[in-house]
Amino acid sequence: MSEMPSAGRTSGSLSEPMATPAPSFGQLILNRVKESGPMEAFRKPDGDGWKSYTWDEMLQECSEIAAGLVSLGAEMEDRIAIASGTRLDWIVADYGIMLSGAATTTVYPSTEKPDVQFILEDSGTTILIAEDQSQADKADGDLPRLRTIILMDGDGDGDKVLSWSQLREKGKAALADNPNLIQERVDATGPDKLATLIYTSGTTGKPKGVELTHSNWTYEASAMDALGILDKNDVQFLWLPLAHSFGKVLLGAHLQTGGITVVDGRVPKIVENLPIVRPTLMAAVPRIFEKVYAGVQSNMAEEGGVKEKLFNWAFKVGRREYEKKLNGENYGGWQLNLADKLIFSKVRERLGGNLRYMVSGSAALSAEINEWFDIVGMPILEGYGLTETSAATCVNRPESKMAGTVGQPLPGTEIKIADDGEIMVRGGGVMRAYRHRDEANEEVFGDQAPGPGRWFATGDIGVIDDAGRIKITDRKKDLVKTSGGKYIAPGAIEAQFKAKCGIAGAVCVIANERNFASALVALDPDSAAAWADKNGKAGATIEQLANDDQVKAEVQAAVDALNSGLNRWETIKQFRILPKELTIEGGELTPSLKVKRKVVEKEFADMIDGMYTK
């Protein structure tokens, strides 16, 4: 909070040369298949193993889906919704929509029926591709424009509801009648045509539909390729929700560069999958990195004795040499080599052993955790972007990464700091508009004329360092003001706390219109269970641990460590440990694992009020 915004300062992209983007996402697909047809493209879970698909095989199925949609009456830019978790069929459906010239409306599978109804109506969706009947049932209502529902899993009724195989059969028949159908549709799809409608979470009202064009995605693909971070030899592990822009932008980068993407949306199996998949690249949200960090720390503490001492020695050496590297001094030597051989290599192997880079986005990552992964030898390239900027706006480059920053803008993107400290973005990733939201468009674009070259107001506050890296300091709308008039950024405090408390999961800082800051702390089930085993309380439930004096002391110690680095008015004076885990299914977390602050504050209102009652 003490940093002053570099008002008026601009950061442009570095000198990375960028290839001319493809004219459409569909053409991007065709270009990749032409270059890499018989090579492996995707891998998905199949029983106890994995099943692979080549680019040629993907194009065959995606073309059948595209032609099937056309046979159902899909016109150019018609909205076709996908309501499904992350799985390869989601990608096939989306690629099919792109090849048909229609546009994808994304729907999170956790979205409740009223919001699904709103999204389908507001978008004007005509066809819904649902993962199963439970997702299809959410469309049961007054939606006159919705003509057809397609089930990925399940049987159709031969009328309004079709099965996945029935759609493919329709596509095969359409392609038999017109073998050039797909190329004709792709040729008719211009860069400015609508490609994707993503609805942002409606925590303060109805969701807003973000209109992203084909040129948004193909620009992002070319810009990410220019960074040289991923290439045709990479194996990418993709678990992120594909209804989120972060997932979609990684698909575009994969098409641009080639390589293999392993798709498995089962979040609890991420760490378990890594030694099997052995990816070279993985993008994730901070919560995943926090869990890995806490898990390793917890395991070492549980081992105790010589192993724990050796672990602590290795990180002491690693931290010392890391500081030398940051300061431009000579670093390395036999001690670091020994620490790597005995400790760091073992941590890397636990996560597959092949990770060259990991990418963090969607929320702030603690600088402490970022540095820890760097010391281990698995650098995290933290990035920044919004749905409205097609997910990727900035990212740290390997040669100039700095923990606590989100790096420099992508090639072709500019960032400037407004007089009030707000981050403004201009470039190929900036959305076309919010759908049916003139007031919201005016708020982010002002009176600028529609079209490329507009500055987008992000709502984030930040600074630009001497290397052109961006540091996010606050979220304009998330800043809260105490009753004493002091501003606090809850997100920044929460990220710091999770690096200091190994048993914490989600955290929610409370301060708005209160006379001091407090916190609600949810325990992480895995870390809490490990702690309970070590402390003779195996089998204790989350609710029991929340009331345990030893657990409270553990959290208090982390709060004390956190407070030592905060301004006086930011310090946490009171906390409560929640009697349950916060989850996506429970409605307290977004699909990208961020806390829904208003939901949590409402659910635990009595507990919060109790912290402020004398």
Name the descriptors:
alpha/beta, 614 residues, 20% strand, 39% helix, 27 strands, 21 helices
Q: In which range does the helix fraction lie?
A: 25-40%
The CATH level-2 architecture of the domain at 45-267 is identified as 3-Layer(aba) Sandwich
User: How much strand content do the residues show?
Assistant: 15-25%
Topology-level CATH name of the domain at 45-267? Rossmann fold
Give the overall average pLDDT.
Answer: 90
How would you portray this structure in words?
The protein has about 625 residues and is an alpha/beta fold. Among the domains are: about 45-265, Rossmann fold (3-Layer(aba) Sandwich), CATH 3.40.50; about 480-610, GMP Synthetase, Chain A, domain 3, CATH 3.30.300. About 40% of the residues lie in helices and about 20% in strands. The strands form five sheets. A nine-stranded mixed β-sheet has the order 3-2-12-11-13-14-15-16-17, with helices on both faces. An eight-stranded mixed β-sheet has the order 8-7-6-4-5-9-10-20, sandwiched between helices. The chain has a five-stranded antiparallel β-sheet with strand order 1-18-19-21-22. Helix 14 links the parallel strand 14 and strand 15 (about 380-385). Helix 8 (about 215-225) packs across helix 9 (about 245-255), helix 11 runs parallel beside helix 17 (about 525-535) and helix 12 crosses helix 14. Mean pLDDT is about 90; it is low at about 1-5.
